[in-house]
């Protein structure tokens, strides 16, 4: 609860009024409290009812996919200014997308800023608190679908200019360099394990008693994702986030993308379950080591 904020004073005697925001009703109401020599109209500030952890996870994942899939579209689609810019641009773009997504999630009401079901599951296993798992995953998936839809709209003229259907799908979802499912699954497990375990280490009290300096965390997590992309991402495209792959893949299947092909649902379980396993293993190890 925030303290009352003085809006203005009125010279009429004998009454004091407090205006309270009622979030459920969405309107202000005045309550007369006690006689005083002046009227003081006060607005009692409540946390805005939209700024919830669910909304934060939705918005953070929305920004993550908008910027992440956006950089892939810029590199892969025909006749863009960044066509053929290469892997370094993609990994850098995704790192910045994660940073921006984390900042957005925090600002919109989710202090944990998971924006990734594998992180949510790993943290739940680490803390043994599973109350947020299903709501967060639902928010993250919805945010990913919304972000991918905006990417489609943003690059609207370029879909028709790009003849190759698999290239269009690659804007939305991952695919392996060599299609060998056991190896692809292992790559996603390893990449996501590194993500979740190192995030636990970054925010561990064993590293800093009070955690990273205020505002520094998103930069550190973005740098971590950049490192994962450069070091481990070349085998499968490093989904390391089930919502990052499944949400845009659903969008690809539903949207009227010019000249698109299939959505490759045969590969879809790999970037869903691989990251979940990797995140779960990292969360369990972090709990075992008490970091």
Any idea what the CATH superfamily of the largest domain is called?
Glycerol uptake facilitator protein
Beta-strand content:
5-15%
CATH topology of the largest domain: Glycerol uptake facilitator protein
What is the CA-CA span between the terminal residues?
32 Å
The total of helices stands at 10
| Biggest beta sheet attributes | 4 strands, mixed
The helical percent reads: 55-70%
Q: Uncertain spans, ≥5 residues at pLDDT below 50?
A: 1-46
CATH architecture of the largest domain: Up-down Bundle
Estimated radius of gyration:
23 Å
Number of strands: 4
- How are the strands of the biggest sheet laid out side by side? 1-4-2-3
The ordered H/E elements are EEEEHHHHHHHHHH
Give the helix/strand layout.
Elements: E1 4-10, E2 17-22, E3 27-32, E4 39-44, H1 53-76, H2 87-107, H3 117-127, H4 133-154, H5 156-161, H6 165-172, H7 181-202, H8 217-232, H9 242-254, H10 269-289
Parallel strand pairs: 2-4
Antiparallel strand pairs: 1-4, 2-3
List keywords for this structure.
disordered N terminus; Glycerol uptake facilitator protein; alpha+beta; 291 residues
Overview of this protein structure:
The chain has a four-stranded mixed beta sheet with strand order 1-4-2-3, with no helix packed on it. The chain is globular, with a radius of gyration of 23 Å. Helices cover 56% and strands 9% of the residues. Residues 1-46 have low confidence and may be disordered. The protein folds into two domains: 4-44, no CATH class; 53-289, Glycerol uptake facilitator protein (Up-down Bundle). It starts with a strand and ends with a helix. The protein is built from ten helices and four strands. It has helices at 53-76, 87-107, 117-127, 133-154, 156-161, 165-172, 181-202, 217-232, 242-254, 269-289; strands at 4-10, 17-22, 27-32, 39-44. The longest helix is centred in the N-terminal third of the chain and has 24 residues, at 53-76. The chain is of the alpha+beta class and 291 residues long.
